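Section 3.1 - Work completed
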Amino acid sequence: MRGRLRRLPRRKAAVTDDEASMSLIAHLRELRNRVGLALIGIAVGMTVAFIFYDQIIEFLKAPYCDLPTTIRGSFGVSSEDDCSLLIFDVLSNLTLRLKVALIAGLVLSAPWWLYQLWSFITPGLKRNEKRYALSFVAASSLLFAAGGALAYLTLANGLRLLLGLSGEGIQPVLGATEYLGFVTQLLLAFGIAFEVPLLGVMLNIVGILSYDVLRKSRRWLLFLTFVLAALITPTTDPFTMLALAIPMSILFELAIQFARINDKRRARKEAAAGWAEVDDDEASPLDARPSTIDDEPTVLDRPAKHDATT
């Protein structure tokens, strides 16, 4: 059959994107600037955390101090209000303050350095994908905060269970470095774990991960979620593991449902554009006839299935 010729609409003037056409040196310079801005934000966050160090320590100690003295020990002091963590060497005070300031600074400045990261990546994305950068930064910050908040709420029950296993006649003595390292590890584990389902959403948005793949992998995702929760929770108790695994499973299911809706929307858009039935390996039916530069380009439509003129 002979295809019909269709005249393409006049193209608009190309919009140049200086970031997308940068040279290698320019990209390295851009990377340097973004890293510098991210480090400045982290330094500001560390400074704020260093100033409010005492308040941060009291906040992190609260789940431990809320435990009865029969579990956490009183160190010979009868007051229920006494809650002490021990330091075993001279330099621990300095290293502890710097460690807490660094972790708190990273958390406080997370929206800023995440934005710098995406600002460096977005020139390589399509125009319709760039708009998701701010959404990703906001969603990742909220999910990390939600994970940290959940870890903080479950911390007291985990400590109660673990410290209560010492038995009669044994009084636990906690060092400040060990305890705060344990708490920050738990908070970071929950916060980072809550980011994993968001990664699946972003991969679906850019077209790498489809709903069909997620749907077929649902059982494996559920199984691996519980395995991951068991591995990354430092308390090793089943209560904390379930507190992490169950919300992660819900987030994964929400990500799968988002992929289902997004894939349906993408399929409707492709069908409306007329590309739904085109195979990915099929070559474009271009018009190979020579033409002058000033002529508008023409292309051959796909062969008509029912053409009475042939």
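Second construct:
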Amino acid sequence: MTTPGPEVKTTGGLVRGVTAHGVHSWRGVPYAAPPVGELRLRAPQPVVPWEGVRDGSRFGPVPIQERIGEFIGAGKQTPMSEDSLTLNVSAPTTPSDEPRPVMVWFYGGAFVVGASSAPTYRGDDFVRRGECVFVSVNYRLGALGYLDFSAYGTPERPIEDNLGLRDQIAALEWVRDNIAAFGGDPGQVTIFGESAGAISVTTLMATPSARGLFHRAIAESSAPGMVFGQERARSWAAGFVSALGADDDPLAGLTTATSHQLLGAAQVLRDRLGDQPGTIPTAPVVDGDLLPEAPLDAFEGGRAADVPLIIGTNDTEGRLFELPRLRLDVLVSEDSAERMFALTQPELRDQVLAAYAGTPHRRDLGGDYMFWYPSVRVMQAHRGPVWAYRYDLTTPVLNLMGVRATHGMELYAVFGLADSTAGRWLTALGGRRALRGVQERVQADWIHFARHGTPASHWPTYDPETRLTKILDRVDRVESDPRRERRLAWEGFRGYD
């Protein structure tokens, strides 16, 4: 049963939450001004104060996006709007003499879909089990968040780049300034995310202005190389402007187009980019300012934030993208792999492909290229303590589908979804006890890490000599340098630098 919760004073004003099942929740709390009108395509501005008490019982609007997957439901339950820069806070109802650790979640979705209101990301298990404060953040997506239109701005009407990344930094600044009022410790903040949310984590670690806003990090299936240079990013922006039909006056077109027109132009741009496999045009940009260098370069140069880091990938990352309606090209086909090597490092083509030829792992080439090998580069370069994992747990349903422990499957363990509707479907043919077990262990490790900076279980740190990696499965184990042959085959590959 849901009842009215306590009122909390924030930089914007008072907000009243709701209480249910031992958790206080404050939803749809603005952390920046609405990025609409003259603020479209601008860096986030300070939150606009409100009078009276704001209702915190409902989630804020979903960022502009196509209605795909579970975000169809999120979109129907809450409005979709450019006015979407809100976050949600959950905290235990029990009082505490000490401030609690804070866990800040960034959702995935290839930077084109996602919402903090998605049922998967409620985080109540962390609050109840870990006695922590959980925060989930909306940030701008697609063209409004991740295409670099800055070249079309003017002194009178500027346009900034990396808007989704700037939103995330603004949200972390809000956490620093406000979370104590919710019982959280602003000096003990863990950022974590999956897929695009994990790319956000590894990118924030390489962003100088984000330093000090978080103290630990967890990256689940990051693609750290999915950050591109300004020349490539601006060519994609030009393609978007053309698809929008705004070549004659790009600034006017970008600032007056409807959200429907923006989504339509994004679809046209994606269709035209089939000749650049393994790239996503909506991604952070190395602009030399906010993001001075590629995150992988920052890690390998020792310039990334040296906070404790948990990082890992799933066993068969790329197989998810073979399913219908998923358009992200992660080199499923032979042709796309050939084009990718031709556009990047053709001299490594034979070396890499030989490690997959004639093996069942050929289907995993794309997932290894996008997620696994770049994450290994982070593991071996990071100057702070690193705990590496690979999530291998599968179920008969996933085996029948041919995807096994593919992209996103660890979310069922992280967010405690074994007995949810989706979890019951996933384990309809067996495997629920195993999923409950790995869920128990993963949550214990994530919570202990947020509170103490180390996992709870026996889990040795990763280093380039031993490469000890925890394999999360029915029975967890630690392996030294798993997939050594594949790692050596990719050695020296740098992708779309």
